[in-house]
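User: Here's a chain of 174 residues. Predict its fold as tokens.
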Amino acid sequence: HGDRRQQGGQRHGRLELVFGALAYGLFFGKMSYAQLGWHDRERLVHDPAWRPRLDAACALFGCTLPRPRDTARIRSDGRVIRPAPGRDGVLLVDALISNLAAYPQAWPRREIVFSDMHGRALAGRAFAPAEYLPAPPRSDMPVRQAVAVHLEIRDPGANATNYRLHVRPAAGGG
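Assistant: Prediction complete.
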């Protein structure tokens, strides 16, 4: 009888050791996986396959993720500058902007800078999305969809021979 009890105790001890090692391995494996995710978080936040998972995890743990943004992926096309009819000293700027990123992102600020023939800045202004869109945005900038923007600015004068239309990150971190 004593031998059986001793064998059963040895088996039970081995099972505890095996399950303990498995639990230990799983715990540290998951911790390593989490650490890799944390290290690569900037890429994962922008990854369309991972973003919903990260949003769900944050909803569970009470955290928030930054909205993805990459202003280099916002393209401006079809820019036209013309005098405003019947409004002396006012220019109208129309353009199309497109989000070429693989994910929706915050609407950017638009900035126009006029310069002289030597490249010196003469005048400039930044516009919030509510100032250049026909209506205040209710969601992020859509993916691969051209959107018409409209700016009204003061005419910088005859010395302004060049202009640049910049895309800037949204105020407040977007």
